[in-house]
Amino acid sequence: MSEEKPDKKKKVTKKQEHKFTSTRLQLAQRYEAAWHKCYYDAPRWIQATVIEEPDGRHAKAIAHNAALLAETESWETKDIVPTGDGGKVWSQYD
Questions:
Q1: For residue 80, what are the β-bridge partners?
Q2: Is 53 within the bounds of a domain?
Q3: Residue 74, SS3 per DSSP
Q4: Domain span at 73
């Protein structure tokens, strides 16, 4: 009896590079704007708790609500100031 060898899969030698497209950038900015909105809409004590415990339950709740908000198609982002952009105002409709 001869055993058939399964086809060997081709090895990937290079890591796939992440391409930064304008769509990915806009989506990242949308999620960031949603997080900022959820954070600043929360009471001050929750904001302080998120700063003290960035991996705590309140931070996770804000991140969860931000993801839900960002994925809502009816939510319009206006005049987002993304982090690390030098204060430049970004608008979704530019």
A1: 90
A2: yes
A3: coil
A4: 29-94
What is 47-78 written as a DSSP string? HHHHHH-TTSHHHHHHHHHHHHHHT-TT----
**Rounded Cα gap, residues 68 and 34, in angstroms:** 9
Secondary structure (3-state) at 80: strand
Which pair of structure tokens corresponds to residue 4? 């058939």
Residue type, position 69, single letter: L
pLDDT tens digits, residue range 27-77? 888 899 999 999 999 999 999 999 999 999 999 999 999 999 999 888 777
Amino acid of residue 81: V
Number of domains in the chain: 1
Say what the pTM is: 0.64
Q: Which DSSP state fits 17?
A: P
